[in-house]
Amino acid sequence: MTFYELSLVRGTKRVQAGTRRLFWTRRFDMLLLLFCLISGLCSSTLAATVSGRLDVSPLNITRKEVAHSSFKLLQVGNFTGPAYYSQTTVRDVHGNFKFEGVPEPKDANSSTYFVLQPSSLDYNLKPGRILVQLVRDPEDPQKIVTKAFKNSFGRENFPSPEILYPEKLAEVAADPCITFSLVNAAPFREYITERNAGILKSGPVASILNSKFKMAAVITAVLMLLFPYLLEKFDSETAQAIKDDRLEKQKRKYADQKRVGEQAQRLEKK
């Protein structure tokens, strides 16, 4: 075999090896792309979205509300693996926010639970805590239904099984979103002091009127002072008998004092 034929054979082998390498490389890239697509579809089907809205009407959403407000979502209840936790803020001027990639129930007979808690540096928001439940729609198992229950601090999310008639949490609207609003009396306070409040609002007369015990003592004293006059007006005979009794007691008292004085003088003379 000549040198030219040998070089041609070697070149042909190199081309065939490069073709095989390119074929397997493209095949590997296609498999990798297919795996990514399947993983994306699986992750999208195993994750749900919880939507909410911050309502500060009659005020408007500004940058201050966006910077000073936040929302936390924490997974609770019976679950396997690490607990889901996420924190988000308001996304637009309408106060909308949402949590994406929330674990959804595996089947129609199971549920996933989360605690949604608002936080604001400027306002007091209600409800203070929301128990979120994700279940599958009985008619369409691919559809996730979001339920929300209003809960207060200090109360358990799930009642103890030992309680025969546990108190149920009040359900709130969750479609299309869970709404948080302002506590009416909390943000607006009145810092005004009246200078001339009047005798009925400040002073000794006001203290008597505002105290039940002082009022009762005053009424009792007034009735005791008015009782003789009222008795004399409505029952003169009884009033006269009371006066005679008092006079008789005074006469006896003076007579006793006089008798004691005379006895003392006799003893001194002896």
TrEMBL record:
It is found in: Endoplasmic reticulum membrane. It is a single-pass type I membrane protein. One of its GO terms (biological process) is protein transport. Transmembrane segments: none annotated. The keyword Signal applies. Keywords: Endoplasmic reticulum, Glycoprotein, Membrane, Protein transport, Signal, Transmembrane, Transmembrane helix, Transport. InterPro entries: Sop4 (IPR031395). The keyword Lipid biosynthesis does not apply. Its main location: endoplasmic reticulum. GO terms for cellular component: endoplasmic reticulum membrane. Belongs to the SOP4 family. Involved in the export of PMA1, possibly through the monitoring or assisting of PMA1 folding and acquisition of competence to enter vesicles. This is Protein SOP4.
